[in-house]
Fold this sequence. Notes:
The complex is a heterodimer of chains A (193) and B (442).
Chain A: H1 2-16, H2 19-24, E1 32-33, H3 36-39, E2 56-57, H4 59-69, H5 71-74, H6 112-122, H7 133-146, E3 156-157, E4 172-174, H8 187-192
Helix pairs in contact in A: 4-7, 6-7
Chain B: H1 3-17, H2 26-40, H3 46-49, E1 96-97, E2 106-109, E3 127-129, E4 142-147, E5 153-156, H4 157-162, E6 166-173, H5 190-194, E7 197-206, H6 207-214, E8 222-227, E9 234-238, H7 239-245, E10 247-252, E11 255-256, E12 266-268, E13 281-287, E14 302-303, E15 309-311, E16 319-324, E17 335-344, E18 350-356, E19 364-365, E20 367-368, E21 378-386, E22 391-399, H8 408-415, E23 428-431, E24 437-440
Parallel strand pairs in B: 4-13
Antiparallel strand pairs in B: 1-2, 2-3, 4-5, 6-7, 7-10, 8-9, 8-13, 10-11, 10-12, 14-15, 16-17, 17-21, 18-19, 18-22, 20-21, 22-23, 23-24
Helix pairs in contact in B: 1-2
Amino acid sequence: xxxxxxxxxxxxxxxxxxxxxxxxxxxxxxxxxxxxxxxxxxxxxxxxxxxxxxxxxxxxxxxxxxxxxxxxxxxxxxxxxxxxxxxxxxxxxxxxxxxxxxxxxxxxxxxxxxxxxxxxxxxxxxxxxxxxxxxxxxxxxxxxxxxxxxxxxxxxxxxxxxxxxxxxxxxxxxxxxxxxxxxxxxxxxxxxx
Amino acid sequence: xxxxxxxxxxxxxxxxxxxxxxxxxxxxxxxxxxxxxxxxxxxxxxxxxxxxxxxxxxxxxxxxxxxxxxxxxxxxxxxxxxxxxxxxxxxxxxxxxxxxxxxxxxxxxxxxxxxxxxxxxxxxxxxxxxxxxxxxxxxxxxxxxxxxxxxxxxxxxxxxxxxxxxxxxxxxxxxxxxxxxxxxxxxxxxxxxxxxxxxxxxxxxxxxxxxxxxxxxxxxxxxxxxxxxxxxxxxxxxxxxxxxxxxxxxxxxxxxxxxxxxxxxxxxxxxxxxxxxxxxxxxxxxxxxxxxxxxxxxxxxxxxxxxxxxxxxxxxxxxxxxxxxxxxxxxxxxxxxxxxxxxxxxxxxxxxxxxxxxxxxxxxxxxxxxxxxxxxxxxxxxxxxxxxxxxxxxxxxxxxxxxxxxxxxxxxxxxxxxxxxxxxxxxxxxxxxxxxxxxxxx
Lengths: 193, 442
């Protein structure tokens, strides 16, 4: 089939004399095929756990790693330190509907897998990408346990982490806008009711 | 500055510069020229008065001797600038850093009141970094396209430049632009209130071209973009958006992307929040579902008053702001002025812009100074006679869909005060009887 199409193209090109245009459309030689091995350097972890590596850790192990590698920016109690630019990691439970909402992993993040992905991706801030899989599991477990989302001795791994139910798991809904109420006359007064 | 003090200052300078020959102290004449300028300048632009501080070239400029009469001395030869060029030593507008503790994860504002025309000079494009600005050798950089594709591939920067390109003008706005205005009028000037907005001419290859090169599986519906910076920034983008106008850009305003803007490759998603337009783009992973990265869950989601949060609010809604007169400026006296501003929308084109001189009671059409393009800013203006009485100036953007930029009270009534992102309410500048201009909420 390929051969006959090539012949046809060739015939048409000769017939109409614009071979360059006809052949330039494909450009399939641009780009290089890559193997799974080459792609294994990358990761992105989905809420169902796809992409999580082998390894494991618990909060007790994570506590020691946190003290050594995280506390100087995020604070001994995960409270965040403004001067380092590091946000709080825990706290804020039941604050989201109040006048002073505190959005943390504990109070706001809907998926535990996001925690693993983010720590592995870019922490510690001054040494990103330096943690082992076990360390990331342990730190995830520690941060989740401080927020009382899991117990101190629960082991986090590729099976257990996606099963952790975050307190704010149902706190999000898809709404790309624009706000429908914008189109209502007298919208401000009505929306307040 | 009075005439007397100006003369005194000049006399003192002449004493100091007396032994100098031409070119020996290139900054002396600049200092004098600046003093003259500042004395003569109307006081409408206090930001420019700060430029009167002499002796040091503004960023991007070189100090040259300024003769009294440039027709009587030979100018400098070409290419003294090394071949890239500098701006005039009298131009001082710069980006301003945000008041954040850590410059590696922070942002800088475009000086909107100082930019001219529709395009933002690349060196003044606002910045937002989450792990600093990486230095990347384009010869070592690849874009990987993989996941739910028939044949995963990597493309070198040279490969990408061999593909057919398109060039379009789009704005990019940080979804956190104007985020300090939900509760109180906090920003002192328009650079702070609205300066996370810039417009460039972008050149690159549509994602659809890459899609044809790798082949999309039937269940492909999302694409993860990933950056090669220390934040390894990731966002999930709906495939529909990627295929309609997603652009892998390598050019900005006629040259390569600036490092702060993602050199050598960035994603451009017209009209969407800036965070999604992954800089230093190294990877596109096609998927059948969103990845729920930190930046689309814990950040860049909108908290509503009931404690729930809106997710995947991507487009930047219609918005506008008056850049002259604006916060911290001073109108020297009653008289004729051109109100000037910028309007934009991430959902289409700007159809019209209205101006109010009385805090939103009455509206009149402004003039559009250029032709609206999709997902692009426009400049507007309005000839105004200020009678010297207090006034509250506002602008509102009307999108081609008919959507009208909301008032602040409307927006707060809809979303509360903790939505953080996507603030697009009408901005109010109060002009006092003494001509001073301040940020107010009405």
